[in-house]
């Protein structure tokens, strides 16, 4: 019987193993020893002899749990089990652990050699008596605290009963006690052939198993990465995972445990901090003090710095440092010592009382400032330790922030804001510190704080040069915040009053153009185009920022080909070293245009480059926009899960920075991915978020946000077969002059869907308008292949042109659109050419399956069935018999829709199944989940205990 089978069988029998994580994970890597133990127990049970198993490991490694496994396995075989343990309090009492294990009373007051010998003889007699009644297993833990008499008695008793049905299982903690038990274990291994189980760090599969059982969900990769800080120690791992849950840092959804949105990733929970502090009791007070000081100094530090902080020579610190290294809390890294796990350092730091921690930080800053260099390092300590009104700290923090503001704006903002906080209203910080804070916050966010700080500074008398500086950053912050009208006004003040360097003027000009576009849309094009043209003689003389602005202008005017060429040229010049506004990088503009066209491959390459470029250029505030664009590129490549993850992360980053740039696009990606998977409720939720997001904008940007929301709402209504809902949503679009035209400029593929959906909804005029607009857009831009193929697809649907659809099937740049064109071709050719229709529908179903568009694949499968063709739609996978993990993909989809409150008939409509089939799946779901009603299913889904949505 294998280790896993044996231990799981014990669990099934209702043993104590069911009270925590499955203990079989602790035996990973020790299968041979488990099998040897089973042999010893089986032999003893058959009265054929016994043996010895030794167990050792650090605190929390699972010794007690393993010994419980041993005792349970012995009991299951009919052995009499004697359990005991030594402890520090009774270490002076001779033979106490053995007496407790064997359940005998000894005269503890006896002393002298004769008395100990007599007591050992008494124990020997007691063992003889037990063995006459039944084979026996003696299990003793914590032998590091055992007295010499106990260790001597063990040697004597093991030798005496070597041929009897007696199994000894002896355990000790590594890193405490004397060396006597070392000799005992060595002697038992050499002389008696004892097997040794040395408990080390758990392997990754075991870590995942324990985390899954503690959380009741599969841990996401970021949680597993944090769990590395537990060093594979079961007790530390459980304290970490349970502590995260207790602190509300874990959110469970779709059967996966992730960090909660508000959680500070990398921060150790309080419970883990307490455990780390308790574990330091293993080392001496000097070592504990050294580790506290090292935790304050940072992830690594020089021994000289530790010596300086402790006010002792290095030679005096050496014993404590050596003990810290022996305990494996610290390791050597070149000339420094470092914490082996940053999580442990942070946990230790969190347990130092705040006043003492702040004092140590001030001491560290004084030490660093007392030598050349180290300004940033000293400032980092002053962030945590400086007192209010400390002028020197304000100066150090301000200078350090200015030093890194362009390359690391996030840390720079933290330093500058801390300087302002320390200075206080009585003695305000120098203007330079405020200016650095404004710049850092604009670059890294949150932008509302940057705008407020700049506005507050401009309310006081300032010099002309400083006014230009502040208004430039104010216009930038307002633009990125979506406050386009105010951004234009601030930019115009910079343009009109700029007398210093050229860069504020150039960036203000770009801010004005992009702000006018966001505020006025195509109405801004003539004036803005004239302004940019007047700035330089031709495109060859314009800097990259102006070329990018021109690209957006041309795009808004429907001159898509020109826009792409301008954006590519701007990127080329930037790569050649020409300066460009950090907040309006040409690569961001190019990525935006390519994503609108769904040019999957080029868009993916550009967004990848943008992700690398943004941190290097100090544009931390744009990380959210960069991830959102990458999500659109991923969706175009047919990777909806990756797209969903990127869009979610990008929206979170955008919210944290206060930069709503591309938020509507991110919500659109989430909605489209949900529609692909058939998660109608989730898509509807994103439509509502789109409508809310539109309120954060002004002018044209707000209008287009509403149009996007209407478009997604119409798609949701169509998925529900709600033609009235489609008509109501699209009616708002058709009543807004120019809205449809602008939607198709930004989302050309929307034309095909609008043509397909408008007629059943009773608004054929909208289908005609969409067909005409996309055809005109393609005709005006003959060099843009994505527009040409989209127009052909639209014409094929609108005019029943099979040739146009065949071309679209082969040439669409994104995967889902190719499958969509194939479906349209198969639907069109159904009556005229059954063979071509079936081939096209097969291609469509395969295409949808590749991009995980389950709902679309189901619709095509139904069309094939209507033509007498049946295609299997299941896959075989190893699944458990019960629980959420046992559900098939179809069952999960049914469960998610039922949990949302849909009837069987409504589920059947959405999944293109019959109500009878839905009822069959629902019965299977109830059986596998052990529930009786739809209410139970909804409750499980709401609690986050299951369900991965309609997928």
Structure explained in plain terms:
- The chain is mainly alpha-helical and 951 residues long.
- The chain has 47 helices and 11 strands.
In short:
With 951 residues, the protein is mainly alpha-helical. The protein contains 47 helices and 11 strands.
Q: What is the average per-residue confidence, as pLDDT, rounded to a whole number?
A: 85
Q: Class by helix and strand content?
A: mainly alpha
| Proportion of residues in helical segments | 55-70%
Read across the widest sheet, the strand sequence of neighbours is 2-3-4-1-5
| Total strands | 11
Main pleated sheet: 5 strands, parallel
- Spans of at least 5 consecutive residues whose pLDDT stays below 50 are 1-8, 10-22, 946-951
The span between the termini is 39 Å
Radius of gyration: 36 Å
Number of helices: 47
- Shape, please? flat
Strand percentage lies at: 5-15%
């Amino acid at each position: 019987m294998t280790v896993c089978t044996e231990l799981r069988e014990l669990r099934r029998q209702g043993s104590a193993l069911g009270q925590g994580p499955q203990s079989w994970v602790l035996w990973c890597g020790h299968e041979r020893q488990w099998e040897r133990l089973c042999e010893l127990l089986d032999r003893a049970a058959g009265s054929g002899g016994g043996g010895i198993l030794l167990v050792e490991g650090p605190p929390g490694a699972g010794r007690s749990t393993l010994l419980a496994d041993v005792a349970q396995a012995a009991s299951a075989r009919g052995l009499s089990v004697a359990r005991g343990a030594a402890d520090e309090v009774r270490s002076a009492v001779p033979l106490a652990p053995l007496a407790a294990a064997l359940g005998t009373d000894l005269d503890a007051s006896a002393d002298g050699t004769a008395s100990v010998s007599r007591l050992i003889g008494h124990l020997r007699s007691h063992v003889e008596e037990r063995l006459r009644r039944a084979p026996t297993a003696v299990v003793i833990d914590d032998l590091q605290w055992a007295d010499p008499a106990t260790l001597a008695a063990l040697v004597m008793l093991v030798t005496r009963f070597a041929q009897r049905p007696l199994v000894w299982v002896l355990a000790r903690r590594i890193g405490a006690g004397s060396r006597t038990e070392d000799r005992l274990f060595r002697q038992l291994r050499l002389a008696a052939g004892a097997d040794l189980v040395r408990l080390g760090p758990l392997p990754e599969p075991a870590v995942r198993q324990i985390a899954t059982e503690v959380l009741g969900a599969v841990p996401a990769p970021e949680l597993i990465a944090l769990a590395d800080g537990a060093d594979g120690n079961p007790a530390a791992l459980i304290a970490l995972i349970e502590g995260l849950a207790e602190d509300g840092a874990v959110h469970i959804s779709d059967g996966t445990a992730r960090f909660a949105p508000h959680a500070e990733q990398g921060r150790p929970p309080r419970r883990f901090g307490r455990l780390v502090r308790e574990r330091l009791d293993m080392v001496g007070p000097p070592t504990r003090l050294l580790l506290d000081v090292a935790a304050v100094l940072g992830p690594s530090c020089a021994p000289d710095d530790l010596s300086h902080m402790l006010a002792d020579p290095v030679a005096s610190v050496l014993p404590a440092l050596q003990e810290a290294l022996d305990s494996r809390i610290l390791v050597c890294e070149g000339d420094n010592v470092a914490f082996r796990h940053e999580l442990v350092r942070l946990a230790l730091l969190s347990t130092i009382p705040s006043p003492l921690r702040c004092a140590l930080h001030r001491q560290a800053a004084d030490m660093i400032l007392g030598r050349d260099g180290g300004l940033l390092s000293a400032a980092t300590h002053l962030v945590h330790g400086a007192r209010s009104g400390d002028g020197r700290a304000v100066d150090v923090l301000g200078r350090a922030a200015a030093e890194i503001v362009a390359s690391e704006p996030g840390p720079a903002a933290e330093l500058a804001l801390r300087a302002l906080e320390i200075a206080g209203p009585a003695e305000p910080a120098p203007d330079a510190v405020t200016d650095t804070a404004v710049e850092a916050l604009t670059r890294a966010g949150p932008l509302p704080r940057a705008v407020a700080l700049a506005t507050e500074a401009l309310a006081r008398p300032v010099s002309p040069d400083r006014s230009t500086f502040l208004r430039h950053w104010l216009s930038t912050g307002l633009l990125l915040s979506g406050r386009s009208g105010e951004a234009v006004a601030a930019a115009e003040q910079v343009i009109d009053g700029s007398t210093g360097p050229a860069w504020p003027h150039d960036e203000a000009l770009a801010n004005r153009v992009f702000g006018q576009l966001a505020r006025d849309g195509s109405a801004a094009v003539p004036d803005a185009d004239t302004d940019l043209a007047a700035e330089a003689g031709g495109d060859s003389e314009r800097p990259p920022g102006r070329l990018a602005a021109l690209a957006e202008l041309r795009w808004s005017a429907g001159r898509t080909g020109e826009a792409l060429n301008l954006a590519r040229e701007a990127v080329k010049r930037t790569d050649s070293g020409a300066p460009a506004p950090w907040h309006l990088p040409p690569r961001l503009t190019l990525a935006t245009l390519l994503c609108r066209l769904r040019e999957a491959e080029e868009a993916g390459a550009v967004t990848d480059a943008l992700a690398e470029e943004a941190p290097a250029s100090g544009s931390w505030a744009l990380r959210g926009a960069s991830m959102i664009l990458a999500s659109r590129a991923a969706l175009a490549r047919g990777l909806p899960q990756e797209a969903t993850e990127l869009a979610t992360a990008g929206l979170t980053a955008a919210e944290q920075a206060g930069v709503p740039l591309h938020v509507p696009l991110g919500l659109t990606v989430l909605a489209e991915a949900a529609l692909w998977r058939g998660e109608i409720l989730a898509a509807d939720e994103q439509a509502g978020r789109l409508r809310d997001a539109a309120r954060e904008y002004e002018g044209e940007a707000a209008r287009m946000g509403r149009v996007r929301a209407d478009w997604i709402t119409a798609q949701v209504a169509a998925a529900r077969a709600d033609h009235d809902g489609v008509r109501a949503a699209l009616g708002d679009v058709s009543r807004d002059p120019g809205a449809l035209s602008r939607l198709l400029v930004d989302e050309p593929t929307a034309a095909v869907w609008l043509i397909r959906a408008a007629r059943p909804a009773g608004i054929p005029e909208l289908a005609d308008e969409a067909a005409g607009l996309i055809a005109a857009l393609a005709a005006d831009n003959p060099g843009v292949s994505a527009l040409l193929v989209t127009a052909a697809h639209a014409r094929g649907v609108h005019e029943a042109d099979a040739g146009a659809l065949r071309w679209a099937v082969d040439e669409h740049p994104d995967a889902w659109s190719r499958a969509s064109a194939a479906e349209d071709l198969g639907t069109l050719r159904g009556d005229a050419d059954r063979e071509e229709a079936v081939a096209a529908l097969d291609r469509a179903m395969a295409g949808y399956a590749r991009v995980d568009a389950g709902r679309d694949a189901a619709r095509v499968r139904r069309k094939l069935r209507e033509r007498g063709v049946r295609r299997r739609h299941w896959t075989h996978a190893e699944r458990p018999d019960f629980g959420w993990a046992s559900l098939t993909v179809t069952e999960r989809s049914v469960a998610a829709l039922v949990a949302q409150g849909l009837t069987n008939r409504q589920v059947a409509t959405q999944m293109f199944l019959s109500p009878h089939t839905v009822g069959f799946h629902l019965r299977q779901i109830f059986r596998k989940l052990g529930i009786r009603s739809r209410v139970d299913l909804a409750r499980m889904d709401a609690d986050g205990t299951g369900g991965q949505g309609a997928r």
